[in-house]
Automatic annotation (TrEMBL):
First-listed, main subcellular location of the protein, grouped into a coarse class: membrane
Residues annotated as transmembrane: 260-283
SUPFAM superfamilies given in the database record: ATPase domain of HSP90 chaperone/DNA topoisomerase II/histidine kinase, Homodimeric domain of signal transducing histidine kinase, Sensory domain-like
GO molecular function per UniProt: ATP binding; phosphorelay sensor kinase activity
Official protein name in the record: histidine kinase
SMART domains: HATPase_c, HisKA
Lineage: Bacteria, Pseudomonadati, Pseudomonadota, Alphaproteobacteria, Rhodobacterales
Length: 561
């Protein structure tokens, strides 16, 4: 009896065994929740960092584009004949002509102000020449952008304006003549609109110069202060601004990552609770009748199925999110390329405008020379006549370029179809001549008009003709055929080529944005042209596609009354 009592005393009690098991389960649950929080928080923090890096890259590209455009303005003006003449002979007429030119450029390039300094640092011309606080007559020789431009040819400085008291970036370039600077051209750029756009975002954006001083910020109170440290609990990304010596920082609260970790912990706790409840139910079910065991097995099977479905849903959601992020990065790159193309169009229109002055001089000299020729010089007379005809052709081309670059008004009215088609053919003529493309044109009455808007109609026609010319690259006996069908209240203009035609894959997504077979294309030309045709009350469609037998596009336009 005594031996039996001692043996039973050494055996652990059921209460102690259950308490030990509960402690072990609780510790395992805490460990699993801690590991889950760490993994989920890390993944969310990495995703947030990647998103901030994409945003930082996009904003750096925007800054780089603005700086490149304004530097180009200063570089072009440093070699301008009117600017050189104003510095060499600062008469009121020469200075006024330069001020008017700077005013026009300031409006076209969205710069804050453009002004010209002489060799002593005094502003002799400025885009704000007619304003009460004009820079004309002010002395800026104390500015480092002036002295450095005289020494090195160009300089930059971010500072407060002495007159406007507004911060901005000053880009300067010397105006040389025979190796010696006559003066300095200065372009000031203000970033108020960009900073206001940053301020509307949830994250904080800062741009610091090489000395670590904040020059641009979504929080104006931080401007011109030392770069602050990254606040605790925040995620950041940085990108250098090429060619400026600046660094762009983006900070965002890390609460999003914390919330993701807590959500994952809650999910694990919920699943663990379900599993624990299932285990307890299973333990109790063993003591019940056999008829309850089948129902308990079905319950466990349903629970496992729910866990698997949830896991599949989470995997699919993560895959969709990665795809969306990749698409966002691609779209941001395409937007930057579109912005560059728009800037190139503005520069082309400016160059076409500047060509007119020397062209008029060439024509005047040719006419004078022709009048002074003796009657016995027929060869010289023919040569001068050819020069006059060529200047007329150049003037016609530059006129069409400026008209094509003008912003559309959006107002519809009667437009002569023949004039619009002639303008589009003139703008695309150089490539046709280079490829030796045969052009077949219809007879279009001069009085035939359609309801449209001149600039946008020319844009659609140029796009369709350029697409046909690109399709004929390297093709034998290339030909573009334009046909007119005038039936009732709607005109149909058909543009066909004898190129390779459209593949079924391209034809299926012909009017889908960003779908293109061209390595350098954006996939927006046909989409924009189709929308313009709809705005006119017409439509743009593709004819039946037969691969290898060319492509045809139909432009339907309403006739003007």
């Amino acid at each position: 009896m005594a031996a039996t009592t001692d043996s039973q005393g050494e055996r652990p009690s059921p209460m102690l065994w259950r308490l030990t098991l509960a402690v072990a389960v609780a510790l395992a649950l805490l460990a699993a929740m801690a590991l889950t929080f760490r993994l989920a928080h890390g993944n969310a923090a990495r995703a947030l960092t990647e998103r901030l890096e994409i945003s930082a890259q996009s904003r750096v590209q925007t800054l780089e584009s603005v700086l490149a455009k304004q530097r180009a303005v200063a570089t072009v003006l440093s070699d301008d004949a009117a600017v050189l003449q104003a510095l060499a002979e600062p008469s009121p007429a020469n200075v006024a002509r330069v001020s008017e030119k700077l005013e026009r450029l300031q409006e076209q390039t969205s710069s804050a102000v453009i002004y010209l300094l002489d060799r002593d640092g005094t502003a002799i011309a400025a885009s704000n020449w007619h304003d009460p606080d004009s820079f004309v007559g002010s002395d800026y020789s104390f500015r480092s952008y002036f002295s450095e431009a005289l020494l090195r040819g160009e300089a930059t400085q971010f500072a407060l304006g002495t007159v406007s008291r507004r911060p901005g970036l000053y880009l300067s370039h010397d105006v040389p003549q025979r190796g010696e600077p006559l003066g300095v051209i200065v372009v000031k750029v203000e970033f108020d609109a960009m900073e206001q756009g940053w301020a509307q975002a949830a994250e904080t954006t800062l741009v610091a110069d090489a000395a670590g001083q904040v020059i641009l910020s979504s929080a104006p109170q931080l401007r011109f202060a030392p770069l602050p440290p990254i606040p605790a609990g925040q995620v950041s990304a940085r990108r250098a601004v090429p060619g400026a010596g600046w660094v762009l920082w983006i900070h965002a609260p890390g609460t999003e990552a914390v919330r993701a970790g807590l959500l994952a912990v809650g999910t694990v706790g919920f699943l663990f609770t379900l599993l624990l409840a299932g285990g307890v139910s299973a333990a109790r079910a063993r003591t019940r009748a056999a008829r309850r065991m089948d129902a308990e097995r079905r319950y466990r099977a349903d629970l496992e199925r729910a866990v698997e479905e949830r896991t599949r849903d989470l995997t699919a959601e993560m895959r969709e999110r990665r795809t969306a992020e990749q698409r966002l990065a691609q779209l941001q790159g395409e937007m930057v390329q579109a912005n560059k193309l728009a800037t190139l169009g503005q520069i082309t229109a400016g160059v076409a405008h500047e060509v007119n002055t020397p062209l008029a001089t060439i024509r005047l000299l040719a006419e004078n020379g022709r009048q002074m020729l003796p009657a016995e010089a027929p060869d010289l007379d023919r040569n001068l006549g050819q020069i006059l005809r060529m200047t007329d052709r150049i003037a016609q081309i530059t006129t069409e370029l400026r008209g094509f670059a003008r912003k559309a008004t959006g107002e519809l009215g009667p437009v002569a179809l023949k004039d619009a088609l002639d303008a589009a053919l003139l703008l695309t003529a150089s490539r046709r001549r280079a490829q030796d493309i045969r052009l077949v044109l219809p007879q279009i009455p001069p009085g035939l008009r359609v309801m449209a808007e001149t600039v946008r109609l020319e844009q659609v026609l140029v796009n369709l003709i350029q697409n046909a010319q690109e399709a004929l690259e390297g093709r034998p006996e290339p030909e573009i055929r334009i046909a007119l069908q005038d039936d009732g209240p709607v005109l149909r203009l058909s543009i066909s080529d004898n190129g390779p035609g459209l593949s079924p894959q391209i034809a299926a997504q012909l009017f889908t944005p960003f779908a293109t077979s061209k390595p350098e294309g954006l996939g927006l030309g046909l989409v924009i042209s189709q929308e313009i045709a709809r705005d006119f009350g017409g439509r743009l469609t593709a004819g039946p596609q037969r691969e290898g037998q060319g492509a045809t596009f139909h432009l339907d336009l309403p006739k003007a009354a």
